[in-house]
UniProtKB/TrEMBL annotation:
Annotated spans, Disordered: 1-53
Keyword set includes Kinase: yes
Compositionally biased intervals (Low complexity): 12-31
Keywords tagged on the record: Coiled coil, Kinase, Transferase
Catalytic activity from the UniProt record: ATP + protein L-histidine = ADP + protein N-phospho-L-histidine
Major enzyme class: transferase
Sequence ranges assigned to domain Histidine kinase in this UniProt record: 147-331
Composition skew (Acidic residues), residue ranges: 1-10
Coiled coil location: 112-148
Organism taxonomic ancestry: Bacteria, Pseudomonadati, Pseudomonadota, Betaproteobacteria, Burkholderiales
Protein name: histidine kinase
Pfam families: HATPase_c (PF02518), His_kinase (PF06580)
Organism: Duganella zoogloeoides
SUPFAM superfamilies referenced in this protein's UniProt entry, alphabetically: ATPase domain of HSP90 chaperone/DNA topoisomerase II/histidine kinase
One MF annotation (Gene Ontology) recorded for this entry: kinase activity
Length: 341
């Protein structure tokens, strides 16, 4: 009995991928030929992820290679240009900071040099002022140590003469001389640069009392130093010098004598001590005395008070001289400034 023909086999279904992300390649379907063997089916293109080798024509490959090289060169040039810009910016910033630093160092060095120069100038000024002060103190000490020999000798001669002719008057002159020496000797021993006006006024009053005993009615004295100004600071021996000059150059050489006025006042925060006389005036009689001169007074005032201290000389009416000393008004210190030993 003839055999029954076999039914053709059903084609295999493709397997379902296990994961959605990695699909599996479907199995290649096979067909059976007349001999019953499976026939091969052409393979499909590979899925993305596998290597793909595409053969390009030589001309297209060369153009593509040139384009890639040009792109690389352009990118390199742009990168180099950006680097140059950044380097230029950094270099400019560095140069700017360097210049600023140099200016700062120069300014600091200049300030240091100026400070050193100012310090040297200050030291030189201090040394110069110290030397001037020492010179001033030496001069003033010499001036304060001077007592007019002519005045003392004349006074002692007058006392000796009055002892024989008028003993009571000689006794009074002797007492006045003792008072004067008691007033002037502390000034001679003291190295004070500044004293008070009251101390100077007491010494000058004692001096004028002696002169009045010698000159008698030829000398009229008017003394006006307010009590409120006796504590004012005043250079020592200056008032004595002014009164001596007025007597010697003005009144003593005038046969009829005259009036001597001593007055003190404060104006514009300055102490003014004024000595005026109605004598012959300066220059009328040649001077041969050894007392303190007006030049020394000016030098002492300049050393003590600078431009704020001055000696003013003017003519008096109808005759004579007005001498004025101006110094800054201040109260004398309780402990007078003394020269260090």
């Amino acid at each position: 009995m003839p055999a029954e023909p076999e039914e053709p086999a059903a084609p295999e279904e493709p397997t379902t991928p296990t994961t959605p992300t990695t699909p599996t390649t479907p199995t290649t379907p096979t067909t059976k030929g007349k001999t019953g063997k499976a026939a091969a089916v052409p393979s499909l293109p590979s899925l993305p992820g596998d290597e793909v080798h595409i053969e390009l024509p030589p001309q297209i490959g060369e153009e593509l290679s040139n384009a890639i090289e040009e792109a690389v060169d352009d990118a390199a040039e742009q990168k180099v240009a950006r680097y140059h810009v950044q380097a230029s910016t950094w270099f400019k910033s560095f140069v700017t900071l360097l210049v600023l630093a140099l200016f700062g160092i120069k300014a600091l060095m200049g300030s240091k040099k100026r400070a050193e120069a100012e310090t040297q100038n200050a030291n030189a000024t201090a040394e110069r002022e110290a030397m001037q002060r020492q010179l001033s103190e030496a001069r003033m000490q010499m001036m304060q140590a001077q007592v007019e020999p002519h005045f003392l000798f004349n006074t002692l001669a007058s006392v000796e003469h009055l002892i024989e002719t008028d003993p009571p008057r000689a006794s009074a002159m002797q007492r006045s001389l003792i008072r004067y020496l008691r007033a002037v000797l502390p000034q001679m021993r003291d190295n004070a640069l500044i004293t008070n006006l009251g101390r100077e006024a007491d010494m000058v009053e004692a001096y004028l009392n002696l002169l009045k005993m010698r000159m008698e009615e030829r000398l009229i004295v008017e003394f006006d130093v307010p009590d409120g100004l006796r504590t004012a600071a005043f250079p020592p021996m200056m008032l004595q010098s002014m009164v001596e000059n007025a007597i010697k150059h003005g009144l003593e050489a005038k046969p009829e004598g005259g009036v001597l006025k001593v007055r003190a006042e404060v104006a514009h925060n300055k102490l003014r001590v004024i000595v005026s006389d109605t004598g012959l005036g300066f220059g009328a009689v040649p001077s041969n005395g050894t007392g303190l001169g007006l030049t020394n007074i000016r030098e002492r005032l300049k050393l003590l008070h600078g431009e704020q201290g001055q000696l003013l000389i003017a003519a008096n009416s109808p005759s004579g001289v007005i001498a004025t000393i101006e110094v800054p008004y201040a109260l004398a210190k309780t402990t007078l400034e003394k020269k260090p030993h």
